[in-house]
Structure formats: C-alpha cells, structure tokens
Amino acid sequence: MRKIVLSSLILFSLSCGSDDKANNGQTVINNATQNNNPSNNASNNKSNNGTATNNGTATNNGTNTNNGTVADCIPSKAQWDATVKDRMDKNCGSCHGAVPSFGAPYSLLDYDDLIAGQEGMRKVDKIFPRTADYTMPPNGAQVTHQDRDTITEWASCGNVHPDHGIGLSASREVHVPTAKPENLTEYNFTANDIAIGPTTLDAYECFTFEAPASGGFISRIEAIVDESRVLHHLVLMRTNEAAGQQFGGINCATSNGKFYYGWAPGGDALQIPDNGGATVGPGEKFLLQIHYNNGAGLEGITDSSGVRMFISDTADKEYHMLAIGSGIPSINVAPGDQVESTRTCTVTEDMTILIGFPHMHEIGSEFHETIIRKNGDEESLIDLTGWSFENQPFYDYNVNLEAGDKIKTTCLYDNHTDKAVQGGLRSADEMCFDFMFVTPTTARCN
Ligand code: HEC
Question: Which residues line ligand 1 (CB under 6 A)?
Fold first, then answer.
C-alpha cells in the first residue's frame, strides 16, 4: 500500500481574531481554565492547570505520519449510517454509484460490500489513500474539507487525515524548528480529559490560560497532541477578553483574540532561533481554540491535547508579532467572482522579519507580498499559490528592512461557494493578514 506522509498543515478556523488589542493582563495567577462550548455535547467540565514542568517528558512535535496500513480497522457502521453514506453519495456517487460509470471500477455505496474481504484488500482500504492524497474525485471537484476529512477518517478508523497541502506552492521555505532549547521552563497548557463522543463532528472548544506571572520570552511553542484520531487543529490566540474578570463560559463563536500559533496534523513547532524570544507579558492571557472531529465515529475517546511553551527569563533578541496586510478587507465577492485586496504599509524603523504566517480563509486563492525599497526596487517577500485554508504553515523570511521601506500585501479571493463573501471575523468571512515575528519590538509597518 502506498505510503502516506502527511505534510505540514497549519490552519486557522472560525473567528480568528484580528483585533490588535494589547495584552497586559495584570492578573498573576498561573492556571488554565477550560470551558464548554454549548455546541459540543461531548465535553466535560474539568478544569486544568498550567503546570510548569521541567522534565524531559515525551513530547509530540505534531508530526503525524502514517504508513498507510491501519491494522484492525472495521469502520463504524453507525457512523456510515449517520453521516458517511450521504457524503459518499454526494461526492462519489455520480461515478461509484450502484451502477459504476465514467470509468469508475466499482460502487462504493454499500457498507457490507465495502468491508467484505481480507483486511488491507477491502474496498474501504482503498478509499482513504485516494481521499487523503486528493486523487479522488479525479476531476478536482469541490469536496468540502468536512466531507473529505470525515470520509478519510471514517475509512481509516481515525488514523489518516487528508493532506490538505497538495497544490499549495510557496516561494519561501516552511519554518523548520531548530533543536529544542535546553534548561528552559516548560509550561504545558492542556485541555484535559475532554470526552469526544462518536457523534462529535466539527466541534470547536475554547480554553483560556495565562502566561507565568513573571512573564518572559517565549522561545518555542509546540502542540501537545494526545488523541490524534480526533484532534483536527489547534489555534493559540492572545486575548484580553475578560481581562480582570474571572474566566469562564468562553464561547468560541463569540470570543476573539489575536493569532499567535497554529497546528494541524503534520504541523510543527514554532522556534525562535539564536536565544531570541517573543515577549510575553506577566500573566498575559491566551485563548486556545481546539477543533475536534471524530470522523471515524469512535467510541470512548477522551483527549488532553494543548500547547507547550518554553519560556526564558532573558532573550538576546526580542521579537513581537506584527499583523500586516489589508486585514478585514472591504470586499463583497459574489459567487463565481474573483477579487483582490491590497494594502501597502511603510516600515517605521529598521527591522528584521524572522517568520511569517500568511492567513486568509476559505475562498483565498493566492497571497503575494512585495517589499518596495526606498529607492523603488521591488523584491518578493512571499508568493503563495494554491492557497489551502487547511494548510497554513509558518514560513522563514529572515529579511532586513529599513525605515521607509514598504510592504505591499495582496490577497486574491476566488469565490467557489454559492454565497457572497465579505470581509469579517467569522470563518465564512474573509481576511488578509501576514502574522510576522519581527525585531525590534518597537518596529511597526503603518
Ligand atoms: C467523476 C467520476 C468519479 C468520482 C466523482 C469519484 N471517482 Fe473514484 N474513480 C473514478 C475512476 C475513473 C477511477 C479509476 C481510475 C483511477 O483509479 O484513478 C476511480 C477509482 C477509485 C478508486 C480506486 C479503486 C481501485 O481499486 O484502485 C477509489 C478507492 C475511488 N475511486 C474512490 C473514490 C471516492 C472515495 C470518491 C468520492 C470521494 C470518488 N472515488 C469519486 C471516478 C470517480
């Protein structure tokens, strides 16, 4: 069977906040609370703590590989009946129907037929490699992420997730973290023992926690992946929501924050090199959004995933995050239309951009960013085509800019949905940002 190596995916969903509020929470407790989103019937109400650990416990850098063999997998009949059959009908039925057509070798719509035969040779074993690598359907037909994820996860019993990076092309290298820093305090912020029932599809949960009272410099952030069969993505945001108040009742649909770190299967850690660090204020507040999807309909799953930060008291170089781009563009893209949104900003002082994270939502198609030097010379900062909402990595930039240089950001949108799309915070809206870690922390691009 073919080898499936899932490439880097970092994505961002729901209302990724774009507000640029400062985060100087003065509360100095260091705990992490978690809250139920009422939309998820499967979560519990235990609270967790932001445990500071200093030991070398096994970590998961988020790399999620699968060799394509899934032993002892009998995909759930209940899940087939509940949701998978309809999705197969819709996306595959025109060729793999009761009477196969257009060259499709066989029907794929009967549960008993799919799981008949020796494991590894069954029709169901042929499905997930082809949906994961995007070669089915063959004609590039639009299959929603939710459908592709659910079919793939169901057929592989949760062991394989689609490679949403296929088709994405970028002019910069994806950020690869250097070795983990030694002797730094690790802070684990996990949402513990969240029960993810067999009917949980596309559930967003939000959790809050605070950085240590002493503040410091984040040298590395990585995902703690517990139950990879249901963990779809994590987004870490800074927030000042409820600052000074008791956290509680966080609803993902209404909460917002400023993007900081994201992970999805195949994603990797963010690491500031050379003893540098991203400044974190004392007790600064973070919002962790976790997207769970039990596409396989597995029973008895609980998850304790989250993020781990490595925080140092000192840093040779301080970085902060700038959100550059047209932000929430004033666009109205009719179904079938293509539109672009551009904004140019001017750098206020000499600065270095270390890492960038281009970000749009579902109808983004291309992302281009150009440096316009004071003398008029232009050079590419990043050019990205084949945008995938489900695959948003950090890219290494390592570019020096001088005061007066300009950055021009252009986002292209291609509305393949049947609804008009506008700029806004919701995942159904669009945005245009490059989240960059830059130094010095006083530098801006206005
Ligand atoms: C437009 C027609 C069409 C649609 C829609 C379509 N397929 Fe196919 N499928 C084909 C054709 C033609 C082949 C044979 C050629 C090939 O293997 O690429 C095929 C082959 C396959 C195979 C390989 C069978 C084998 O034994 O090698 C699998 C598995 C498969 N399709 C799954 C799916 C799934 C799952 C969907 C829906 C998500 C889907 N297909 C949608 C036309 C289609």
Answer: 91-92, 94-96, 102-105, 108, 126-127, 130-131, 136-139, 143, 151
How many angstroms separate the alpha carbon of residue 368 from the centre of ligand 1?
35
From 121, 122, 136, the mutation candidate for ligand 1 (largest count of ligand atoms within 8 A of CB) is: 136
CATH number at residue 222: 2.60.120.310
Domain that holds residue 393: 318-439
Distances (CA, A) of 252 to 108, 260, 290, 426: 37, 16, 9, 11
Q: pTM for the whole thing?
A: 0.77
Alpha-carbon distance of 29 to 48, in angstroms, equals: 13
Q: Is residue 400 part of a domain?
A: yes
CA of 140 to the centre of ligand 1 (A): 12
Task: Count structural domains, the chain.
Answer: 3
> Hey, what are 429's tokens?
């809206």
Nearest-CA residue for atom 27 of ligand 1: 126
Q: Which two three-digit tokens encode residue 21?
A: 């509020």
Per-residue pLDDT of the chain (446 residues), as tens digits, is 333 333 323 333 323 333 332 222 222 223 333 333 322 322 333 333 333 332 223 333 333 334 455 678 999 999 999 999 999 999 999 999 999 999 999 999 999 999 999 999 999 999 999 999 999 999 766 788 889 999 999 999 999 999 888 889 999 999 999 888 888 889 999 988 999 999 998 888 888 888 888 899 999 999 999 999 999 889 898 887 653 333 344 667 666 778 899 898 878 999 998 899 999 999 898 988 898 999 999 999 999 999 999 999 999 999 999 999 999 999 999 999 999 999 999 999 999 999 999 999 889 999 999 999 999 999 999 999 999 888 889 999 999 999 999 999 999 999 988 899 999 877 788 999 999 999 999 999 99
